[in-house]
């Protein structure tokens, strides 16, 4: 009896870990791709300000991304480091956790179209509020310090990674 319960618990833990693992891998792979492939100039040009165009692109990119919140945070961090405005990065994170397509499908199947519609309408309202109020609150020296801190952290981890690779070879 105890062995069966333990086996069932371990099986459930494995299944849960497997279900969480693929969005994490996808999100961190996308984050790495953004850091490796997207130039600072391109990111600044596309998402570098708090304009409606930048916010709309950030929201669309969020809708197209993974709904895993860990992956969303990693990607939002990466696009912020690469030159996106803080507001655009936060809009991306919000859209990627509240407006993704697979979430809507799951909500329709499990809870009905009304709940999915409410999720999307609420997500759009949150994005509009974040874009208007966030653009006013999250600017200036605080955002500059945050970007510098993250850039320094990224550079430090890159240097340590390169040093570790050189030590191995």
Task: Please describe the structure with a list of short key phrases separated by commas or semicolons.
169 residues, mainly alpha, single chain, 8 helices, disordered C terminus, globular
Q: Any chance you could write out the topology, listing elements then pairs?
A:
Elements: H1 2-37, H2 40-47, H3 52-64, H4 69-81, H5 86-98, H6 101-111, H7 113-137, H8 141-168
Descriptive account of the structure:
The chain is an all-alpha fold. It is 87% helix and 0% strand. The protein has helices at residues 2-37, 40-47, 52-64, 69-81, 86-98, 101-111, 113-137, 141-168. The chain starts with a helix and ends with a helix. It is built from 8 helices and no strands. The protein has one domain (2-138).
């Amino acid at each position: 009896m105890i062995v069966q319960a333990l086996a069932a618990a371990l099986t459930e833990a494995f299944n849960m870990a497997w279900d969480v693992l693929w969005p994490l891998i996808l999100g961190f792979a996308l984050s790495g791709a953004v850091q490796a492939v997207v130039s600072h100039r391109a990111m600044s040009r596309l998402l570098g300000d708090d304009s409606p165009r930048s916010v709309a692109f950030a929201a669309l990119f969020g809708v197209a991304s993974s709904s895993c919140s860990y992956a969303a945070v990693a990607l939002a961090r990466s696009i912020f480091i690469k030159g996106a405005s803080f507001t655009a990065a936060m809009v991306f994170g919000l859209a990627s956790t509240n407006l993704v397509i697979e979430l809507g499908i799951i909500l329709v199947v499990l809870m009905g179209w009304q709940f999915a519609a409410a999720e999307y309408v609420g997500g759009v309202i949150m994005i509009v509020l974040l874009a208007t109020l966030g653009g006013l609150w999250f600017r200036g020296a605080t955002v500059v310090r945050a970007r510098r801190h993250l850039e320094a952290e990224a550079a430090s981890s890159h240097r340590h990674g390169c040093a570790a690779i050189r030590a191995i070879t």
